[in-house]
Amino acid sequence: xxxxxxxxxxxxxxxxxxxxxxxxxxxxxxxxxxxxxxxxxxxxxxxxxxxxxxxxxxxxxxxxxxxxxxxxxxxxxxxxxxxxxxxxxxxxxxxxxxxxxxxxxxxxxxxxxxxxxxxxxxxxxxxxxxxxxxxxxxxxxxxxxxxxxxxxxxxxxxxxxxxxxxxxxxxxxxxxx
Amino acid sequence: xxxxxxxxxxxxxxxxxxxxxxxxxxxxxxxxxxxxxxxxxxxxxxxxxxxxxxxxxxxxxxxxxxxxxxxxxxxxxxxxxxxxxxxxxxxxxxxxxxxxxxxxxxxxxxxxxxxxxxxxxxxxxxxxxxxxxxxxxxxxxxxxxxxxxxxxxxxxxxxxxxxxxxxxxxxxxxxxxxxxxxxxxxxxxxxxxxxxxxxxxxxxxxxxxxxxxxxxxxxxxxxxxxxxxxxxxxxxxxxxxxxxxxxxxxxxxxxxxxxxxxxxxxxxxxxxxxxxxxxxxxxxxxxxxxxxxxxxxxxxxxxxxxxxxxxxxxxxxxxxxxxxxxxxxxxxxxxxxxxxxxxxxxxxxxxxxxxxxxxxxxxxxxxxxxxxxxxxxxxxxxxxxxxxxxxxxxxxxxxxxxxxxxxxxxxxxxxxxxxxxxxxxxxxxxxxxxxxxxxxxxxxxxxxxxxxxxxxxxxxxxxxxxxxxxxxxxxxxxxxxxxxxxxxxxxxxxxxxxxxxxxxxxxxxxxxxxxxxxxxxxxxx
Lengths: 177, 525
Prior knowledge:
The complex is a heterodimer.
Chain A: E1 9-14, H1 17-29, E2 34-38, H2 46-50, H3 57-83, H4 100-126, E3 147-152, H5 157-167, E4 171-175
Antiparallel strand pairs in A: 1-3, 1-4, 2-3
Helix pairs in contact in A: 3-4
Chain B: H1 6-40, H2 42-74, H3 77-98, H4 100-106, H5 110-123, H6 125-133, H7 137-194, H8 204-211, H9 215-229, H10 253-257, H11 264-294, H12 297-326, H13 339-364, H14 373-404, H15 407-419, H16 421-439, H17 442-445, H18 448-475, H19 483-506, H20 517-521
Helix pairs in contact in B: 1-7, 1-19, 2-3, 2-5, 2-6, 2-7, 3-4, 5-15, 7-8, 7-9, 7-11, 7-12, 7-13, 7-18, 7-19, 8-11, 8-19, 9-11, 11-12, 12-13, 13-14, 13-18, 14-16, 14-18, 16-18
């Protein structure tokens, strides 16, 4: 995601998440640019080790939730107070605020609904996941029990290959940009 | 290894002593000024009483009036109506005056006397209006005058009793609040073992020390509630003499029906069982943890897992029953089925606030170097999550009662709304809105500054929550925040610091043979 594709890419396959994590740290400490890691499951601390920017999804979620809250307030106001005032249990139906406690469940649910759904769709949109999208993982084994790391090749290819072998890579291949 | 410095020791002892002195001074002043209060509240007492008289009167009149209205309708409307209405009215007013309202005012229990007033006023709102339309205002005033003069003394005495309850209630509120700080972490400590939690292994010693802080509040709570049984104060309505004896002047049918559970013997047994069970768990968890330092960590961990499992089951029951006994029974007529969880949630979240403060204090001393941002973040998450959980339970209890609007339930909130509006809304915002705004975002939970701020909000908010739970039923509108309230807070805060820090100083802060201590050190999220 997001890396410039000017340089050729070296792909290294690993079979252990701890090894991948320490390899990423080692490579970055030695000035290499690890552009992507494919993993069957989330590895704790990997995003930090790769130096990825922190996601803004949580900020978005806050505003999605706020949207849901306002929508629910408007919805309950319009349906229960303005358009068709209903007397339920003798509760005041002339003012939204006086009847607010009975709308809290609706407000809560729609806040969650908006936050969850819009967050999910935002995630899909940002990652280019849509029905029929092509799988991006270069090796199907990364959906099972292997981990694949992409490193940009800048300079000596043999040095990088040796480094990767030392770090525990099982297979190494080179992709021209 | 943490060292309990002389300075901290002096601070803790100083707080305790100053708090105790303040409470005693407040207690003495409360006694001498309560006569003044009698006079000062004269006007007030009459006013409240007149309300009740008027309301009850309207209620009775309503029925009579409705009947009369029906009869009159058949024939000539106006004459018949006025006459019938008038007669019924006088009779009705006398009845009410003689029995209902008067009986309520001999009662020392502000919450429930008030409740009765609200109940009658609530039911008769419509009646009053209809009534006024027919020109009976003069009547209302007559009844009001006669009534007010007679029962005036009873009400003044009632206010006097409320005033006398205040130092005891204030001490009780602080005791319950500080009990929660220890009890929440005792439960959390048990949970760590049965959930086989790894992340928290480096924090267990803090939790163990904090769990020991339950002992002193428990002693004070037991003392106060047993003094109630000896009629030293009048905090608990059901403890009054003759409450279950038919024909006795204090007889209360509703409370007599609850006698199977709320009787002195069973109450004392239950309180002793709570103290025994909780203190046993705190001591066992600590003992095995200390044994593991010099012995087999895995074996001791397994033992603690058993203790944790037994305690969790025990606490599942006693957290609810203790909340009924110690808090809900103050408003004896009222009941709420989720009161136990609501109380537990409040205790749990305030205990996390205390743990955060203690952990950050230890870190500021350069200790607990294995506790990193991730652990602090998790404690912050727990505090945040349980703030929301507390709000969820608070609202669940509130909305059902608000929606159903049954007089016997809704009086609980009407009294808080009428007399406790400021603490009621302050504590709601401190316990829900402030934590949400302050520590919702991830970075905020990793910065000590915002966490400390949120923890202080939560602690103040939950003190006020307990205040609003207990005070309305014991002192009614005679509440305030003075020496008697401040004293117990300082007293228990001093003892909390002393017990907490001296227990931390007794053992290494690292639970070094805990089977998951390595996992805890590498914890990352």
